[in-house]
Amino acid sequence: MAKSDYRLQTEIACGPDTVHSLACSEVWGGNNVVDLNVEVPGFMSWVHSRPLQPATLGGDVYYLAVCSKGLLSRIVLADVAGHGEAVSATAETLRNLLRKHMNALDQAVLMQEINEAFRRKDDPPDAVYATAAVLGYFCKTGELVFANAGHPAPLWYHARENTWDWLHEDTSYKQSRMEGVPLGLIPGTEYIQSAVQLGPADLLILYTDGISEATNEAGEELGYEGLLQLARSVPSQTTNTPGTMGRALLSEVSAFRGDSPAMDDQTLVVLQQTTTNMAAYASR
Hints:
7 helices, alpha+beta, seven-stranded antiparallel beta sheet
Protein backbone atom coordinates (compact mmCIF):
# COMPACT_ATOMS: atom_id res chain seq x y z
CA MET A 1 0.00 0.00 0.00
CA ALA A 2 1.36 3.45 -0.93
CA LYS A 3 2.19 5.81 1.89
CA SER A 4 -0.53 8.29 0.89
CA ASP A 5 -3.13 5.51 0.79
CA TYR A 6 -2.15 4.33 4.28
CA ARG A 7 -2.41 7.86 5.65
CA LEU A 8 -5.88 8.34 4.18
CA GLN A 9 -7.23 5.03 5.50
CA THR A 10 -5.81 5.80 8.96
CA GLU A 11 -7.54 9.17 9.04
CA ILE A 12 -10.87 7.71 7.98
CA ALA A 13 -10.90 5.65 11.16
CA CYS A 14 -10.26 8.68 13.41
CA GLY A 15 -12.90 10.32 15.57
CA PRO A 16 -15.08 13.27 14.50
CA ASP A 17 -12.82 15.81 16.28
CA THR A 18 -9.64 14.68 14.52
CA VAL A 19 -8.09 17.33 12.28
CA HIS A 20 -5.64 16.51 9.53
CA SER A 21 -3.46 19.57 8.88
CA LEU A 22 -1.97 19.43 5.40
CA ALA A 23 1.75 20.11 5.09
CA CYS A 24 3.20 22.41 2.47
CA SER A 25 3.44 20.67 -0.94
CA GLU A 26 0.91 18.03 0.16
CA VAL A 27 -1.99 16.75 -1.93
CA TRP A 28 -4.61 14.85 0.08
CA GLY A 29 -7.75 13.06 -1.03
CA GLY A 30 -9.10 10.21 -3.11
CA ASN A 31 -12.40 8.52 -3.96
CA ASN A 32 -13.10 6.34 -0.94
CA VAL A 33 -15.14 6.64 2.26
CA VAL A 34 -14.13 9.59 4.43
CA ASP A 35 -15.51 11.75 7.24
CA LEU A 36 -12.75 14.09 8.40
CA ASN A 37 -11.83 17.64 9.38
CA VAL A 38 -9.00 18.92 7.18
CA GLU A 39 -6.97 22.12 7.62
CA VAL A 40 -5.33 24.07 4.79
CA PRO A 41 -4.06 27.67 4.71
CA GLY A 42 -7.07 30.00 4.99
CA PHE A 43 -9.64 27.26 5.52
CA MET A 44 -10.90 24.81 8.09
CA SER A 45 -12.82 22.15 6.20
CA TRP A 46 -14.91 19.04 6.61
CA VAL A 47 -14.86 16.33 3.96
CA HIS A 48 -17.56 13.68 3.85
CA SER A 49 -17.88 11.08 1.10
CA ARG A 50 -19.97 7.91 0.91
CA PRO A 51 -19.85 5.79 -2.25
CA LEU A 52 -23.11 4.09 -3.14
CA GLN A 53 -23.13 0.75 -1.33
CA PRO A 54 -21.74 -1.85 -1.70
CA ALA A 55 -18.91 0.01 -3.48
CA THR A 56 -16.00 1.21 -1.35
CA LEU A 57 -14.43 3.30 -4.13
CA GLY A 58 -16.88 5.74 -5.65
CA GLY A 59 -17.12 8.11 -8.60
CA ASP A 60 -16.80 11.21 -6.39
CA VAL A 61 -13.19 12.40 -6.21
CA TYR A 62 -12.06 15.01 -3.68
CA TYR A 63 -8.67 16.66 -3.22
CA LEU A 64 -7.18 19.42 -1.11
CA ALA A 65 -3.66 20.73 -1.77
CA VAL A 66 -1.23 23.26 -0.33
CA CYS A 67 1.50 25.02 -2.30
CA SER A 68 5.17 24.81 -1.35
CA LYS A 69 5.13 28.12 0.58
CA GLY A 70 1.81 27.66 2.40
CA LEU A 71 0.19 30.66 0.71
CA LEU A 72 -2.14 28.95 -1.76
CA SER A 73 -4.76 26.29 -1.06
CA ARG A 74 -6.54 24.40 -3.84
CA ILE A 75 -9.71 22.36 -3.51
CA VAL A 76 -11.18 20.07 -6.17
CA LEU A 77 -14.39 18.06 -6.13
CA ALA A 78 -15.05 15.94 -9.20
CA ASP A 79 -17.87 13.57 -10.16
CA VAL A 80 -16.69 10.84 -12.53
CA ALA A 81 -19.03 8.40 -14.27
CA GLY A 82 -18.68 4.85 -12.99
CA HIS A 83 -16.83 3.17 -10.12
CA GLY A 84 -13.72 1.09 -9.52
CA GLU A 85 -10.46 1.10 -11.44
CA ALA A 86 -11.49 3.58 -14.17
CA VAL A 87 -12.41 6.19 -11.55
CA SER A 88 -9.28 5.47 -9.54
CA ALA A 89 -7.19 6.13 -12.66
CA THR A 90 -8.92 9.50 -13.13
CA ALA A 91 -8.39 10.25 -9.43
CA GLU A 92 -4.68 9.59 -9.82
CA THR A 93 -4.54 11.83 -12.90
CA LEU A 94 -6.18 14.63 -10.93
CA ARG A 95 -3.72 14.15 -8.07
CA ASN A 96 -0.80 14.43 -10.48
CA LEU A 97 -2.24 17.56 -12.11
CA LEU A 98 -2.74 19.23 -8.74
CA ARG A 99 0.81 18.42 -7.74
CA LYS A 100 2.10 19.76 -11.06
CA HIS A 101 0.22 23.07 -10.74
CA MET A 102 0.11 23.48 -6.95
CA ASN A 103 2.16 26.72 -6.98
CA ALA A 104 0.16 28.46 -9.71
CA LEU A 105 -2.62 30.82 -8.65
CA ASP A 106 -3.79 31.11 -12.25
CA GLN A 107 -5.85 27.94 -12.88
CA ALA A 108 -6.10 28.29 -16.68
CA VAL A 109 -3.50 25.65 -17.61
CA LEU A 110 -4.75 23.31 -14.88
CA MET A 111 -8.30 23.59 -16.24
CA GLN A 112 -7.08 22.98 -19.80
CA GLU A 113 -5.36 19.79 -18.68
CA ILE A 114 -8.36 18.71 -16.60
CA ASN A 115 -10.49 19.27 -19.72
CA GLU A 116 -8.27 16.84 -21.64
CA ALA A 117 -8.22 14.33 -18.77
CA PHE A 118 -12.02 14.27 -18.67
CA ARG A 119 -12.32 13.12 -22.29
CA ARG A 120 -12.07 9.50 -23.36
CA LYS A 121 -10.25 8.70 -26.59
CA ASP A 122 -13.20 7.03 -28.31
CA ASP A 123 -15.83 9.59 -27.23
CA PRO A 124 -17.27 12.19 -29.63
CA PRO A 125 -15.78 15.69 -29.20
CA ASP A 126 -18.71 17.01 -27.14
CA ALA A 127 -18.85 14.02 -24.74
CA VAL A 128 -17.71 14.59 -21.16
CA TYR A 129 -17.82 11.86 -18.54
CA ALA A 130 -16.79 13.92 -15.51
CA THR A 131 -17.46 17.29 -13.89
CA ALA A 132 -15.33 19.26 -11.44
CA ALA A 133 -15.34 22.37 -9.28
CA VAL A 134 -11.83 23.81 -8.83
CA LEU A 135 -11.03 26.50 -6.26
CA GLY A 136 -7.78 28.28 -5.39
CA TYR A 137 -7.49 30.52 -2.30
CA PHE A 138 -4.65 33.05 -2.01
CA CYS A 139 -4.13 33.74 1.68
CA LYS A 140 -2.26 37.05 1.28
CA THR A 141 -5.25 38.80 -0.28
CA GLY A 142 -8.21 36.62 0.73
CA GLU A 143 -9.12 36.19 -2.94
CA LEU A 144 -10.69 33.01 -4.25
CA VAL A 145 -10.17 31.97 -7.86
CA PHE A 146 -12.64 29.40 -9.15
CA ALA A 147 -13.64 27.57 -12.30
CA ASN A 148 -16.42 25.10 -12.89
CA ALA A 149 -16.16 22.23 -15.36
CA GLY A 150 -19.87 21.44 -15.62
CA HIS A 151 -20.18 20.83 -11.86
CA PRO A 152 -23.03 22.12 -9.66
CA ALA A 153 -22.32 25.60 -8.30
CA PRO A 154 -21.13 25.61 -4.64
CA LEU A 155 -23.29 27.13 -1.93
CA TRP A 156 -21.88 30.32 -0.39
CA TYR A 157 -22.72 31.51 3.12
CA HIS A 158 -21.88 35.18 3.73
CA ALA A 159 -21.21 35.27 7.48
CA ARG A 160 -21.44 39.05 7.87
CA GLU A 161 -24.86 39.21 6.21
CA ASN A 162 -26.07 35.80 7.45
CA THR A 163 -27.23 35.01 3.90
CA TRP A 164 -26.88 32.08 1.50
CA ASP A 165 -26.48 32.13 -2.28
CA TRP A 166 -24.36 30.53 -5.03
CA LEU A 167 -20.72 30.76 -6.01
CA HIS A 168 -20.81 31.02 -9.80
CA GLU A 169 -19.38 33.20 -12.58
CA ASP A 170 -22.47 35.44 -12.59
CA THR A 171 -22.35 36.27 -8.88
CA SER A 172 -22.73 39.96 -8.10
CA TYR A 173 -19.64 39.62 -5.86
CA LYS A 174 -17.26 38.72 -8.70
CA GLN A 175 -14.18 40.85 -9.26
CA SER A 176 -13.55 42.52 -12.59
CA ARG A 177 -9.79 41.97 -12.32
CA MET A 178 -7.18 40.18 -10.23
CA GLU A 179 -3.49 40.90 -10.35
CA GLY A 180 -1.57 38.18 -12.16
CA VAL A 181 -4.66 36.13 -13.02
CA PRO A 182 -6.50 36.47 -16.35
CA LEU A 183 -10.23 36.27 -15.65
CA GLY A 184 -12.86 35.16 -18.15
CA LEU A 185 -13.03 32.36 -20.71
CA ILE A 186 -10.11 29.92 -20.47
CA PRO A 187 -8.65 29.33 -23.96
CA GLY A 188 -9.37 25.90 -25.40
CA THR A 189 -12.23 25.21 -22.98
CA GLU A 190 -15.76 26.33 -22.19
CA TYR A 191 -14.78 27.14 -18.60
CA ILE A 192 -14.82 30.58 -17.00
CA GLN A 193 -12.14 31.62 -14.51
CA SER A 194 -13.61 34.01 -11.93
CA ALA A 195 -12.54 35.57 -8.63
CA VAL A 196 -14.28 36.81 -5.48
CA GLN A 197 -13.20 38.16 -2.11
CA LEU A 198 -14.24 35.94 0.78
CA GLY A 199 -15.37 37.51 4.03
CA PRO A 200 -14.34 36.39 7.52
CA ALA A 201 -15.86 33.00 8.47
CA ASP A 202 -17.66 32.65 5.12
CA LEU A 203 -18.67 29.08 4.25
CA LEU A 204 -18.48 27.33 0.88
CA ILE A 205 -20.20 23.99 0.34
CA LEU A 206 -19.16 21.84 -2.59
CA TYR A 207 -21.33 18.80 -3.30
CA THR A 208 -21.99 16.17 -5.92
CA ASP A 209 -25.30 15.39 -7.61
CA GLY A 210 -25.92 12.49 -5.25
CA ILE A 211 -26.89 15.27 -2.81
CA SER A 212 -28.80 17.65 -5.09
CA GLU A 213 -30.59 14.85 -6.99
CA ALA A 214 -31.80 13.02 -3.88
CA THR A 215 -35.45 12.00 -4.21
CA ASN A 216 -38.14 11.58 -1.59
CA GLU A 217 -40.69 8.79 -1.26
CA ALA A 218 -42.99 10.54 -3.74
CA GLY A 219 -40.23 10.53 -6.36
CA GLU A 220 -39.67 14.29 -6.11
CA GLU A 221 -36.12 15.52 -6.59
CA LEU A 222 -34.54 17.89 -4.09
CA GLY A 223 -32.86 20.01 -6.78
CA TYR A 224 -30.53 22.97 -6.41
CA GLU A 225 -33.14 25.36 -5.06
CA GLY A 226 -34.31 22.73 -2.60
CA LEU A 227 -30.73 22.31 -1.37
CA LEU A 228 -30.38 26.07 -0.99
CA GLN A 229 -33.58 26.20 1.05
CA LEU A 230 -32.34 23.38 3.29
CA ALA A 231 -29.11 25.30 3.92
CA ARG A 232 -31.12 28.40 4.81
CA SER A 233 -33.32 26.39 7.16
CA VAL A 234 -30.61 25.03 9.44
CA PRO A 235 -30.07 26.90 12.75
CA SER A 236 -27.57 29.75 12.47
CA GLN A 237 -25.31 28.27 15.16
CA THR A 238 -24.52 25.33 12.89
CA THR A 239 -22.47 27.70 10.70
CA ASN A 240 -19.88 28.06 13.49
CA THR A 241 -17.80 25.15 12.18
CA PRO A 242 -17.72 23.35 8.82
CA GLY A 243 -18.36 19.98 10.45
CA THR A 244 -21.51 21.05 12.28
CA MET A 245 -22.83 22.75 9.15
CA GLY A 246 -22.09 19.75 6.94
CA ARG A 247 -23.67 17.25 9.32
CA ALA A 248 -26.74 19.45 9.76
CA LEU A 249 -27.20 19.74 6.00
CA LEU A 250 -26.79 15.99 5.50
CA SER A 251 -29.39 15.43 8.21
CA GLU A 252 -31.82 17.70 6.37
CA VAL A 253 -31.18 15.88 3.08
CA SER A 254 -31.78 12.55 4.83
CA ALA A 255 -35.04 13.85 6.30
CA PHE A 256 -36.15 14.98 2.84
CA ARG A 257 -35.36 11.55 1.38
CA GLY A 258 -37.18 9.66 4.12
CA ASP A 259 -37.23 5.94 3.35
CA SER A 260 -36.20 6.49 -0.25
CA PRO A 261 -32.76 4.89 -0.74
CA ALA A 262 -29.68 6.76 -1.93
CA MET A 263 -29.18 6.29 -5.67
CA ASP A 264 -25.68 7.71 -6.11
CA ASP A 265 -22.44 8.52 -4.30
CA GLN A 266 -22.80 11.44 -1.88
CA THR A 267 -20.02 13.90 -1.12
CA LEU A 268 -19.85 17.23 0.72
CA VAL A 269 -16.78 19.44 1.12
CA VAL A 270 -17.48 22.30 3.53
CA LEU A 271 -14.90 25.11 3.70
CA GLN A 272 -14.83 27.88 6.29
CA GLN A 273 -12.59 30.90 5.80
CA THR A 274 -10.15 31.52 8.64
CA THR A 275 -7.09 33.65 9.28
CA THR A 276 -5.98 31.80 12.41
CA ASN A 277 -3.73 29.25 10.67
CA MET A 278 -2.01 31.39 8.06
CA ALA A 279 0.88 32.58 10.28
CA ALA A 280 1.65 28.97 11.21
CA TYR A 281 1.80 27.94 7.55
CA ALA A 282 3.92 30.95 6.62
CA SER A 283 6.51 29.97 9.24
CA ARG A 284 6.88 26.37 8.03
